[in-house]
Design goal:
Helix 1 packs across helix 2 (74-84). The protein is globular. It is of the alpha+beta class. A hairpin with a 6-residue loop joins strand 3 (50-56) and strand 4. Helix content is 25%, strand content 26%. The longest helix has 14 residues, at 15-28. Strands 2-8-3-4-1-5-6-7 form an 8-stranded antiparallel beta sheet, sandwiched between helices.
Length: 189
């Protein structure tokens, strides 16, 4: 099976900007920050009881990367974060199992680019997939290097140069862990 991953890139953002927005989003989903060290060894966690997001950066260009543990909700979360981080540009990429990479870009809570095949479950409409001219126009507007194709992998490399699905050890990362408010461990706190 193909490795799966989901990542968001938030441009001109500080770590604090992203943490505050992510905490608000997770709170709306019924999750609160939770120190994973408080989970006892052998604890029989319920499915979806805990979730983690890894924050990296900001890098030299002022871009924060958020690696989500759950790919299924990545676009919905990206859209919600874009509505909170209205002064920031955001791009999300998802690689589901046995499917091709897909990505979407957002500004001020609006979808501005969709590349690759996706069911668009988080939207109430089916956006037109971007062609090379649309991709080139957006990349230029964002001050990013051009790409020679509207293929999702090529476009993602322009948004996230040097991105590795599995970051090397020692990379500047910080996990942000969350628990459902209905978790037994949260209730016992």
């Amino acid at each position: 099976m193909t490795p799966t991953w989901a990542a968001l890139r938030v441009f001109q953002a500080t770590r604090q900007d992203v943490v505050v927005a992510l905490d608000r989003l997770m709170a709306r989903e019924g999750r609160i920050p939770f120190d994973a060290a408080r989970i006892p060894p052998g604890y029989p966690a319920e499915r979806g009881e805990f979730e983690s997001a890894r924050l990296e950066g900001p890098d030299a260009r002022g871009v924060m990367t958020v690696r989500l543990a759950t790919w299924r909700t990545a676009f919905a979360r990206a859209l919600a974060l874009s509505k909170t981080l209205t002064h920031h540009r955001l791009v999300a990429a998802v690689l589901p199992p046995t499917e091709a990479l897909r990505l979407k870009a957002y500004v001020g809570g609006d979808l501005v680019l969709a590349v690759g095949s996706d069911p668009d479950d988080e939207l109430f409409y089916r956006p037109i997939r971007a062609d090379l001219a649309a991709v080139q126009g957006l990349l230029a507007t964002w001050g990013l290097p051009p790409c020679d194709s509207a293929h999702p992998e090529a476009v993602w490399r322009s948004f996230a140069p040097g991105f590795a699905p599995d970051p090397p050890d020692g990379m500047d990362t910080q996990a942000r862990d969350y628990a459902r408010t209905s978790s037994r461990l949260v209730q016992m706190s």
